[in-house]
């Protein structure tokens, strides 16, 4: 079972009025192996303010600059993503851009190319830009423009939308995407937000959680269950998930137990 909040913390942290959730995007980066699908996971450092020590997919909050309409874009339009996620076009654009930016910042995988039909194969040349993006000295729009790159929205697929329970003091409205690891690229763990990173079969990642070798939040657990049902990355990418429903669990404290109800 996935790890749940401490009951005392869950009870004491309940705000008088629900905190407005911050928009966020996370990407389940996938690859095929002889033993089945693997997904890239990272264990967040213990000092993080949110999900400390949890095993998660690369992702994070939307930067207001992610909505920049000047970004060269290939694939489904912002209007189409807005229909899929049930939001307005500026937010849809920002979510897709945040997904691309966060994936690059946290794993070094860049879902972009020199044109609408091309994908970067060697991202090492963009190491300085990656560091500048992490430090917020550079926006995604500026990075892509300076590098002559086009964002490849067609390499992403919408998968899920989970909102942190209203009882929590730090909340996110997170859209989950899936994407295949581009040919020639390598995912790394070169981020200060993770203590370890690596590829795991979804079933093995859930087994780690059950055995206490890792901590998984309910949304992560649910995504791993979904992925475990697919035999190949192509199967995942071909799965129809639109329009994406919004899921917001509630927490119920019963003595020493915290129950998550969908």
UniProtKB/TrEMBL annotation:
InterPro entries: NUDIX_hydrolase-like_dom_sf, NUDIX_hydrolase_dom, NUDT19. It comes from Prauserella rugosa. Residues 185-212 are annotated as: Disordered. This is Nudix hydrolase domain-containing protein. One of its GO terms (molecular function) is metal ion binding. Its cofactor is Mg(2+); Mn(2+). The keyword Metal-binding applies. PANTHER family: ACYL-COENZYME A DIPHOSPHATASE NUDT19 (PTHR12318:SF0), TESTOSTERONE-REGULATED PROTEIN RP2 (PTHR12318). Residues 21-229 form the Nudix hydrolase domain. Residues 185-198 have a biased composition (Polar residues). The lineage of its organism: Bacteria, Bacillati, Actinomycetota, Actinomycetes, Pseudonocardiales. Keywords: Hydrolase, Magnesium, Manganese, Metal-binding.
């Amino acid at each position: 079972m996935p790890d749940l909040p401490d009951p005392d913390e869950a009870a004491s942290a309940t705000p008088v009025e629900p905190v407005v959730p911050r928009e966020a995007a996370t990407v389940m980066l996938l690859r095929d192996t002889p033993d089945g699908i693997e997904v890239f996971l990272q264990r967040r450092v213990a000092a993080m303010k949110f999900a400390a020590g949890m095993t998660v997919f690369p992702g994070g909050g939307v930067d207001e600059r992610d909505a920049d309409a000047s970004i060269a874009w290939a694939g489904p339009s912002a209007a189409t993503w807005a229909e899929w996620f049930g939001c307005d076009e500026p937010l849809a654009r920002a979510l897709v851009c945040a997904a691309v930016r966060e994936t690059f910042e946290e794993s070094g995988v860049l879902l972009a190319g020199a044109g609408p039909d091309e994908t970067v194969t060697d991202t090492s040349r963009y190491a300085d830009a990656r560091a500048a993006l992490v430090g917020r000295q550079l926006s995604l729009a500026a990075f892509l423009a300076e590098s002559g790159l086009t964002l490849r929205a067609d390499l992403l697929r919408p998968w899920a939308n989970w909102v942190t329970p209203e009882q929590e003091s730090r909340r996110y409205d997170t859209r989950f995407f899936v994407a295949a690891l581009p040919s020639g690229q390598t995912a790394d763990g070169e981020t200060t937000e993770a203590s370890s990173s690596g590829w795991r079969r979804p079933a093995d990642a859930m087994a780690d959680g059950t055995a206490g070798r890792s901590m998984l939040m309910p949304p992560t657990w649910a995504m791993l269950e979904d992925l475990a049902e697919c035999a190949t990355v192509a199967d995942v990418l071909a799965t129809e998930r639109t329009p994406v429903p919004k899921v917001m669990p509630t927490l119920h404290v019963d003595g020493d137990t915290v129950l998550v109800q969908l």
